[in-house]
Amino acid sequence: MSLESSRYFIEHINLDVDKEYITLHLPIDEYQIDEEKIFTYFKESKGSRYWFKSKDNTYNVIGINYIDSIWRDRFVPKAVEDSKAALFNKIQQEALSKNLKSKLSLFGGTLFDDKSSTDEWNDFKMVEFHLPEWQFDLKNQELFLTRPIKGLVLEELIEEISGVLAEIETEELYERDKPVVKSKRDIFPNEWKKLVQEAVENLDQDFKKVVLARQKLILFESRAKRLYLIRRLKDEMDTYTIYYEKGNSTFVSKTPEKLFSIKDSELTTNAIAGSIQRLDDQVQNEAHKDFLLNDDKNLFEHKVVRDSIISDIAPFSQGLNYKKIPQLLENRYIYHLYTPIQAMLKEDADEFSILKQIHPTPAVGGLPKEKASEYIKEREYGTRGLYAAPLGIIHEDIECEFAVGLRSMLIAAKSATLFAGCGIVKGSDPEEEFMETEVKFTPMLNVLEATTNELYKSSDSSDI
């Protein structure tokens, strides 16, 4: 950021007293800053920070200090849209440079469903999106600073911004202590297997699939250091990175799955369903890939997910494009069947109505969607909260990107609860599905450096 050029722009700004906030938008490409330095500098803001990075790096956004938020106890698209419009209408937006690329955004999403929340999810609302005081766009090397207009002296902000950026740049990074694992245990493992068997017996022509999730509880000797997690998340590639602090809770996800994005009136989404483990042995991996591409169970599971997504977005679309034969999506630990889908949206389409319609996809809920959702709500152990829920970035216009909060965990105090699920169809075997979910715990175990053969204890309900 050029201090003199920013002063020039500041001098020509007239504060709008009818607005509540002013947002200054400026380049920060002269500073060498990254995610870990930002979180280190703003360590006192714990509980009011997020990091959202899309797997194709369309977004790499960090927000610090939630200065305002919109939230609802029920997800009514029109009400959320009105709240978003009202919040943006309170902001006077000013660019301090020409040719800036990014746009002011809010971060947030919804819980998986409206099931009465258990205590561990009390920090999160059913629907909420946050406007941060400091918003760093690391892809475009730009900054948004939002402050209340009342009592503001604009000229002082330039020196403050320059000082903060200089201090972030010179933050010393040192080795972080990894959390010491006290114990690991599966929550209700035997009961979960019985639930899978019951679901298989209940499936028929009118109830084709249900996704059942389970949890793994990890206890630490002391509180997990958030800066350690940030460093570990930086090392993970080819997935979304979602790091979301709210109050005393932190939700972390390394999901491979985009729910949808909208840009220039084009909606992009994908069907991801059907999976198999990726190993270190290349010969075995080739066999796994060949099996996945030809296995009837996985192909059926993928087809019902793809067809459901297409059906959900069709009312908002005036043209669809997708391939009927799935391809492979290769992640660090898992291979997935994958079909990209594009749709040109109608003029009256809005992101929240689409979100309400498309979530949950059969990849995380089941089919039919309503029946599967009720089955999950009534029978599944615990509350999903943000697991498998939509989280992402929204703008003042319709442009947005949402991911699905898979490969995730909730951290609070000295514990981490890991979540994983799998699609149950006719022919599913409880033991095989249990092992599939075990593989899906791997990304979060890797973030914690808590391997599955370390201090592992499987327990039934009496041990929890």
From TrEMBL:
The highest taxon in the source lineage is Bacteria
E.C. number(s) listed in UniProt: 5.4.4.2
| Catalyzed reaction equations | chorismate = isochorismate
Chorismate-utilising enzyme C-terminal domain mapped to chain residues:
190-440
Q: Which GO terms describe its biological process?
A: salicylic acid biosynthetic process
User: Which keywords label this protein?
Assistant: Isomerase
**This chain belongs to which protein, by name?**
isochorismate synthase
Task: Identify the species of origin.
Answer: Jeotgalicoccus meleagridis
Question: Which family, according to UniProt?
Answer: Belongs to the isochorismate synthase family.
EC top class, in one word? Answer: isomerase
Q: Look up keyword Isomerase and say if it applies.
A: yes
The record's GO molecular-function terms, alphabetically, read: isochorismate synthase activity
Q: Does the keyword Mitochondrion apply?
A: no
